[in-house]
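Bug report (template v2)

What were you trying to do?
Predict the complex of my protein with pyridoxal-5'-phosphate.

What happened?
Run completed; filing so the output is reviewed.

Input:
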Amino acid sequence: MDYERFFADKIAELKAEGRYRVFADLERKAGRFPEALSHQGEGVKDVTVWCSNDYLGNGQNPAVLAAMRDGMDKCGAGAGGTRNISGTNHYHVLLERELADLHGTETALLFTSGYVANITTLATLGAMMPGCILYSDALNHNSMIEGIRHSRTDKRIFKHNDPADLERLLAADDPDLPKMVIFESVYSMDGDIAPIEEIVEVSERYNAMTFIDEVHAVGMYGPRGAGVAERDGVMDRLTVIQGTLAKGFGVVGGYIAGSSNLIDFVRSYGQGFIFTTALPPAIAAGALTSVRLMKGEQGVKLRERHQERAQTLMTKLLDAGIPVMPSVSHIVPIMVGDPVLCKQASDELMAKHDIYVQPINYPTVARGTERLRFTPTPMHSDEDIDKLVDALQSVWENLSLKRAA
Ligand SMILES: *Cc1c(COP(=O)(O)O)cnc(C)c1O
């Protein structure tokens, strides 16, 4: 086999389909978010970032930065080992306690990322409970799909956000077998939100455990920033709450929160937890400060401003006839419906308007639903918003893109 040829052909396929991924080479500027430097060949220019998952700007929160510096000065760079072999630092312990308090659970467990938290927890639970059936929302994130796949147990896919379809599947299975229902709160490509209470009620009726991914909600929803389940008053009815420290909290790392027995089980059997070096202590120190601040007054203010910015952008786009998708969250997606046009729109925004938004193509979203996905943050000004709306008007005109009905 001509290996090099094989790889080159596979890349050529992606390019022909218009979904070859080109990364923006950015240099973030602490204290100036959403401004960043964009490196393009030899040149550099200032751009406004409109697609960051640093949803609340906590990646530059001065208190978080100070905590990270302090953590590094005290403990050094790396953790020095896996959690079991010398790598558990006191900051990890404090952060796990803080996360358990945030979600009102007995305990919590840290992972190196939200992705690893999902894949490890689902693979471990699914593989080790004899006869376990996993019920997965049709639009679940790849990290959950991979966890389910690695569990090698039976799975059922229920229609997106459809408790009735979930109930139909649960009712058809042996009532004595162990079951777990797996879903997200905020779905980040459409900006819709799960009917958590209804899904919990159906699951309870069939004695199924529930696993919720609140990655796009922690820090951002609920009175203390614990997520949509907190906002909806159903946090105590979920079996496992999974989250990230990388998006709303602005740092990096993932976690699960739940009962002592379940968490101890994943801690003791989960391979993606056991066989990897613990997060650097300074990271845990920064995340700890971020979670604490988002629970309090600073969090309340940021959440209010965040929602207001998203609403303002959506209203202005609708007024301008730009086809915003009907989001009920902080995510503002605009449908383009073609991978090549989507990339062209993104390129033109960057080249002519100094606006950076990454095109979202298959397999992140279904073919034919390619889109631009905007994430307004509390740091985007009125001026940023008006500039974006004008730029989109011009791009929609130039590329003859479809307008709102
Ligand atoms: C980003 C994401 C993850 C992974 O979290 P990381 O901390 O970035 O690894 C998990 N679930 C969903 C729904 C996500 O969007």
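What did the reviewer find?
DSSP finds 15 helices and 16 strands in the chain. The longest strand covers residues 43-49.
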